[in-house]
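Dig into what follows:
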Amino acid sequence: VRALLALGQVPGALALVRAAATTTTDAAFNRAAVDTYWLSGHPHAACGRAFQMARDSTSNGALEDVAFCHFLAGQHAAAGIDVDLLREQKGIDPAFFQLYARLTGFRREAVSSLSDPTPLLLAMLAATKDPPPPAIVEGAAPAVAYFVAEMAHAPLSLRLIAGEQAVAQGGLAPDMLRKLYASVPFSETDLANPAKVAASLDDARGNALMYQAVGRENEPLAEAEALQSSFALAKKLSGTALPIYRAEDKRLRALAPTHDLAWFAPDAVRALLTLGRPKAAAAWYALIAPGGQAAASDADSAGDPKAAQLAPLMALAGAAATGPAAASAAVPTAGAATGIATGPGADPGQTLAAWYAAADPSARDAEAGLLFTLSEALGEKVPASLWLPLYRHTALAMATTPPAALRHGLARAATGKRIGETVIFSLVSLGPGGPTVASAATLADVVAALEAVGLDRDARRIAVEAALGGI
């Protein structure tokens, strides 16, 4: 339950609590259950558990919950006694007393700050009907972002920010973010020129406007144009397009990759790879790969130059070109313009060489080190000639890697084919920042270990996530 709450998976935690024993004297489980009920908006169940905890022990930290429960039940005298007892204890968050004073009317102004609030404090905040402090979602834990996104009386602008955070973190279902986007009011004038109006907004309302604009389009060409603008705006507003990718997942998958939409293929490929849909990405990549649908004549049969930038990502994902263009795009072909080879029989060295030639010289060496390392971790052979320029220009700064004990544990678990142990060591090695901030050496260890125990798909998803973050 604690792990699910840490991930912001409040509905999953609630389902697990309900599936467990209804009565237990285990203080740790009861504490986790009470927190889950507060976060999921079930005060009656939370209070039932809290009173049980109080009966079992007077020193298990449930008195704060009991005080709030007495207040909710209209037993204000009992709640007052509880609070007086709490004032004599050390370590009680001052926000508890501020929120209680607000609930009882002894405090006129709303609480202006809540730093890392507990589930109980969030439930008390919701009971005040006051708007949450704007800073509550800045760097918030996934469960906090989930709670604020679901808080009906919170300002819509704040719910949008929290909703995007929670969806990006995986705690909130994309359907909830879609509902939030759809609930933002816009005039017909705004919707008639959405890209321009959205660009003038400096918060998540811009993403909401573009979401509504995409939904109004009936023609594939106009829908693709709106999606492209939506992705670019989301990246500009928040530095990541992941929330809008997840919100637009259904529409993106429903949009058929056709010749006249080849210009949209690079955006579609990146979005679908980010969403973990390599097969769908391959159908779009086939449009711009050498010999793909975008090739109108022998003169441009080499494919879109942007294919050189995407080819390594497709290779890491293990995705072969699919769709009407697959027959030609899957044949290993050296394009005159890009030099890309695609398909199952493609030479990875040729693919990476083409990417290196097309990449931005100011950043390609660091990016190349990551791509080459990930490729070799997945069993591909990267020619020494590609590594050579990196030896000459390697910076002196050393990347941080996990302690030797972790690397040893990961290697032993993988060698012994112990899947669960390998996964645990992999997650700990990657650290809280995940694949996008882990060192290339750490990623190589993790990807190779996961492949060794048969988790090829997971290894490739980690590799693609790391590469997308780096390039």
Summary: DSSP finds 28 helices and no strands in the chain. Residues 220-238 form the longest helix (19 residues). The two ends are 36 Å apart (CA to CA). Residues 295-302, 323-345 have pLDDT under 50 and may be disordered.
